[in-house]
Amino acid sequence: MGIYLYKELEFGGQQFAFPMPAMAELPLEIRFQMKSLKVYPGHAPVAFFEFPNYKGKRFLVGEAPTFIGDLGEWAGRLNSFSTSGYYPADE
Fold first, then answer.
1. Minimum mean pLDDT range among 7-11, 25-29, 33-37
2. Which domain holds residue 80?
3. Record's InterPro entries (predicted)?
């Protein structure tokens, strides 16, 4: 199983933590950058992150976020929807 990294972002005054499923071979030094936020009807928002030029290619990874409440407490997954995966950004 891969290593999980978390990236906290804020949208419209709400904080979200995005679990980033990283393959075990990826170095922990990689810093994920927000690429876009997409909303699918009936599902949680899906964030697409980009890590540049890893092994000569750029990749995107999408993941449905976990909501963090106003006090920073974990409120659990918004739902079970996830588009977790790695997508070459150049293709």
1. 25-29
2. 31-91
3. G_crystallin-like
